[in-house]
Batch of 3 targets.
Target 1
Amino acid sequence: MAILKVQHLFKHYNGAKYISARDINFEVKEGEIFGFLGVNGAGKSTSIKCITGIIPFTSGKIEICGFDNKKDPYNAKKCFGFVPDNHAVYDKLTGSEYVNYIADLYGVEENVRKERFEMLCAKFKIGHAVNNQIMSYSHGMKQKISIIGALIHMPKLWILDEPMVGLDPQSIFEVKEYMKEYAKKGNSVFFSSHNLDTVQVMCDRAVIVHGGIVIADIDLHEYRRTGKDLEKEFMELTRQAGELQNQMRKEINDEEAELAKKVGKHRASRATVKKIDKMVHDLIEKTKDAPCVNTFAIDLAKSKGTVQVKAEYTSK
Amino acid sequence: MTRGAGKTKGMSPKMVAFRASWTSIWTLIKLQFKAGVKMPRGKSKARTIVKLGLIAGIAIAAIVGFSFVYGMLADQFIKHGLSHAFLVFSFVIFHTIETCFMLPMLIRTLDINNDREMLLRWPVSPKQIFISKIIVAYLNELIFTACLLLPILIAFGTAVGMNFGYYLFVPFIIVLAPFFPFFLASLVMYPVQRVVNFLRSRQMLTTFIYFGLLIGMVIGYMQVINGTLFALLDNAGLERMLLSKQGGIRFVSQVFGVQWLFAKVFNEGIVWSIMGLIAVIGISLVFLAVGIVVAGRNYYKTYMDERTMLSALKKKAPYKRSKPLFATIRKDCLNIFRSSNYTFQFLLLVVLTPLLVYFCNRVAMVAAFQTFQQYNAKLAEDLIFGASLFVIMILMPVSSSFAASAITREGHNIYHTKLIPVSFRKQIAIKAGIVFFPVLVAVAVAIAMISLPYKPSNLSDMIMKVPVTDAIYIFGLAISLVIGYICLGMYLDIRKPLCNQIGGGELVKSTAHVNLIMGAGLGVGALLGIVSMFGGLFETMAGVMEMGGLVKFIFKIGTYDRLIYLPLSCTFALVSFLLLFLHGPKRYYRMEQ
């Protein structure tokens, strides 16, 4: 069963020149550790913000534990815990006050929260500081209290955005171990990171996002079995995708590119659509032998409800 | 060769160092102005110029309009022998507004917490930072004083018929008005800051000390004003004094605390005036020099205290389950009350409102008693009604404007509010309620105070009291406006949160929304207050006054103010409320910060 389902996620920030997420599609299954990869500006953070409800999205559909996060945000939010990348926690509260506050929001029973809190504090070795005000914490300690806050209600889906930043090696190890333990219990872990080695070792599956689309959906068990290097593949795939996207951008004449930018105001000409179709076809031809790439999708000139040229292919 | 190196050619090393030091100070001043003043920008240069011109035009029109109305009112009062009472009101209002605005501004500007970025990023010394900050703070205060005082002084001078000498001294009054309190504040700032750092994590104690000091200061300040008034009014011949050129100036100077200078100027001639001026500037410079030495010696110690004393608060939270609503209220309250900065901003006027209402009423009563030389119950009621309404109307927008940064203050934690399974509407209601209830209590206490009969000890048989219907009217008007300000301020903040954070994560500057709500509220408050106060007063004195034109119209409105203002304020409250609670949650969801 899919704990998280993202379908055709499209996000264009108000007034932004570029589209942040063009067509993001993936699923996170029960009991899975899922890696979410991409270069800076690929659309990773935007996708995570849309999934968690921090920002609204323009179109598409996101389901968490079967709840649509637009139509039923209350239940969708109850299903996940989120660890952001910016260590943002309420500085004025003490660690225990913060975790108790989160536990109250999710209705965690007193005895249950006590047991979990003590267990998590012991695991992440922060017990000595939980009664201190968070403003006195180091980056790593803030990250730890944020992790504990995200787990106090034991959500079905644990979303982590660059969770290892600022953590000491011991804590990184603990977090990794706990991620595995957590997934074994039937929960899912959504793990966004730039650390490809960790992703290769930890995750069951990973997707690579580039230019606002998912360019690869990778079975990491297969990688580990065959001894393939995720880092090398990542570099190659993102390079190819980047080159192709650049090439296509160049080939579309300036006028049409301008039209595509003017979201919702103009329609692309038939000639442009044909051009894009041909380019997508060439792209598929070029990348069809890429190992372990299950899905390849590209949507170059998509813009709000007008130019929608999209192709999804499955490799051999 | 570096830029400007040619200019230092031939200078001694000491001169070069001095020049470099002042260059740094100048850079810091520019930086603070750039950070503090957001220039309006249009899409093109022409639009920017139009925008700037428009703002300048509105400001000039407001000042000219204010001067005009003030001059007309002053004319009427002087014509009918109420000049002193009118001037007393004017200065009390000026001092009230100045205290409310300048005290937090001074604290904010000189606060060491704001220096972190400057100190960490640039090769500047504490002394340079201190000097630059003190210049910026003084200029801010000067601009504020000039905008407010210039129209009053000019209008008053015109109405009384002062000669050229008076106008020559007006700039001096404005330049000197903030001098003593300002440099004194800068002198004690760092020692006080060290005490504050010590108390920083002892929240309750800090809050008590802050408010104890503040209330003490306000009571002392109002007593001085009150005492000055008694002294002035008891010295027979006030009318003569006010209407004579020397007397008028002496009166003005009394209220500004630099009376001795002006007394010397007008009594002792030009030599004394120059000596007096030199003395004022000299004493101020001594304060400044001592301030710089104190800053240089204490700066790093204070700065390090600030850093190392953060971890002092320790508190074990019980594993006690609360409903999400109460948990969110508790979290929001802790976020405010565990910050001395926020607590101060939040509760400053809530605590001061009843006090200021009381003191302003006393001042009004003294002026009225001395004017008519006998107690008139109806006039006393009108005065208390008008003065209370005026003070409450002026103070409420300042307290309510805290709501206009409710979302912005979340800063990086804004993501929390989007993630938690608590509806946006509920979160908005919690934030609005936290601002509303203390203001409600403050207004209720102030209203209760003026509804109960009270005899001030040194005002013989006077009774300070307004009828219940008047009290209910003020309460209804104030509360409906407060609801309007809070809802509108929060809605604006939701539409465009600024999340302007510095250093430790606290919002240290007021946002544009806060200023907008405060400015609009003060304008509306001043208008309502003046019309209600003088409308009631003139109605009582009907037949005595000769009124015409705009003045008559304004006072006629004053007669029917209840029928006009209450429905208007209730409509404003309702519209703002609906805007916030119907449209606000959708905006909150769409927020992309």
Target 2
Amino acid sequence: METRIQALRKENKVTQNELADAVDVTRQTIISLERGRYKASLVLAHKIAQYFGLAIEDIFVFDQEDENI
Amino acid sequence: MMNQPVHTNAEFKEQMKARNRWLWVIPAAGLITFVLGLYGEFGMDSPLSDKMLGVYTGMGLGLFVVGVVLTIRNHRIMKDEAKLKAWRLKYTDERNIAISRKAWQIAAIVLLAGLYLGGLIGGLFIPVLVDVLLCGVCLFLVAYAIAWQVLNARH
């Protein structure tokens, strides 16, 4: 799944470690999310959205075909 | 790996303490197996083969060492907040949990295929293998079915 995490991190000058610490996951999970190799759970998506003060759909890009929506 | 979701080091420490309370079972089982193996080897005229006695002593000693090492490691982790946090993240990170589940699935498929093929092919040479290994397959499937029903009722 495509995300805007990397762009938002850079905009807010936040490191992967800082974000990982804030949302209670490993740095590897943040890397995988940024590369689109891992789909976050609803709870993690919510935590990340809350961290950046945005809505989930502003960060996680749902591909209607991929997600069969 | 852990039963309840944990969000802080204190909660994780409590879970580790709870697990440590049961950890003595591993070295105890290992020690009993090891002593029985030694007793069979040196203490009496055992009907068991040298190979089986070697398996008992080897497995027993292995379990004992693993149990002791795990206990010491857990105590060290609990004393160090940085290590505790690293372990908490390792065990509670949702991606790690997903990877672990996937690895279990793959291992289960390989195990089932190994038992099935081992039973069918090995049984040609050692007939008892068919019974033992296919019983293993049945045990696995029954355990899966029961676990599925229980979890389905709970969630």
Target 3
Amino acid sequence: MKYLRTRILEVLYPAPDHALLRFSAEPPIFAEPGEFVMVYGGWGAHPVLPRAFSLVESGRIGSILVKAIGPGTDWLAAMQKDHELAVFGPLGRGFDVDPEKTPVLVAGGVGVAPLLFLAERLAASGRRAIFLYGARSENDLPLAEDIAGVAELIVTTENGAVGEQGLITRPLQRVLAEHPGCQVYSCGPEGMLEAVAEVAAAAEAPCQVCLEAPMACGLGTCKGCAVMTTGGSYKYVCLDGPVFPAPEIYGTAP
Amino acid sequence: MSDRLRTSLGTLTLDNPVINASGTFGYGFEYAGMVDVAKLGGVSVKGISLQPRPGNLPPRTVETPAGMLNSIGLANIGIDAFINEAMPKLRDLGVTVIVNTFASSVEDFAELAERLDPVEGLAALELNISCPNVHSGGMHFGISSSAAAEVTAAVRAVTGLPLMVKLSPEAGDICAVARGVEEAGADIITLINTLRGMVIDVDRRRPMLGEYTGGISGPAIKPLGVRMVYEVFQQVSVPVIGMGGIANLRDVLEYMMAGSAAVQVGTANYAEPGIGVRLIDELEAWCAERDIRSCELVGLAQQG
């Protein structure tokens, strides 16, 4: 792992308040879907910490999906081509893909980032995933078009503007009932992840969740991103995760 | 590199005055490959206790204006794993190791020191008597000059290692604590640890951190650290190591001119793990340009 001073190649705006930063990585960052990088925009005294982002693509070109929600992400979302971006990674442990089972990917909001990467990786090996993508409204569905190119896409919005109206767990129940032998991979808000884990457990489909936690270092030294596991001990999102088997976090049936 | 940055701290001599602060750089070996860890003046390792500690209830960190709040609770691998697993790696890497210790009783502080004393490859021992995030011990020792002196004396009696004592800015009179630990046998005084703060999550209507309060670090506390170094420098004759919010060369110069013989870099390591090494290079260049040695900067801003 290296601390890279990368250059931004292009910035895409896949939805309001969202930016996809594509940067050149030399040496290349070879990552698995679910692995992440720490990103520092050189903002100086405020904010002080770098930000953790799942990679959307890796190799000579890396990319991250930013939703502007505070000083650090506002800064990143405003960056332009040729700006310098400090990046270190890849970090953490990504998804553990079961080649025997039908992949069902469930994303909420910016949780789409590692799952688009996973869907593309699966497509490259000739497997087409079922991709369930839930959002509050049509403004929170970045990269949906990219997904449609590599996976069977089902969208839900809470306001019903796009796709089915309601939460993503409803089509998930349907998909798991229709397809025996599924493996669920999910990333999104905490409440959604827990609900997805419960639906998967009820359908006896194994489920992996990609977590987010406040973290300072990204590589296991600050001990900031602790998550309590069902076994009663702490694990660290940056080092032991960010992808965990859902039963370990939510106590759902394995 | 020349010996322009050579730093003499009583019985401890470092190649340069830049040390990575405890709790912000792990045990140091995690960064090998990314950072030239042997080049650092020293690495003060994550605080070690007699038993491993799991740490505090999450969330444990949150950002604050020009800083961060942490309530890690001294999660660490314990002294056995430190000696048997971490130290061999650090020796191989050639890291100048400052072992930072934490305990909740005077006896445990002494036991840690006694067990660390014969360990090969330790440059110094730093007592953390100033952690705001543990329920017993910790800062309790650091806010009272008599308690601080008692811990220092008990450790002094059982170790020949250069002894640093890390003070809390929460002490009513930090100079009195500094004098107390100097008298009790401290070789070096380190300051400042974090100070307690709180952030409220207004959506959930409760404190953001799992343990409610945490220690504030980062640029926000730099003027406080500089002022305390300036005052303590006048009151003790042992060297002072300053820290609190150092993020660039000017910050290093400020702390040194205030009276720091060496500095520790903490929170800034997160954004740039190699910042310590970069500051060494920048300090070397700055001193070379003026044809001075870095030790000549110490206390330059002291008036009268």
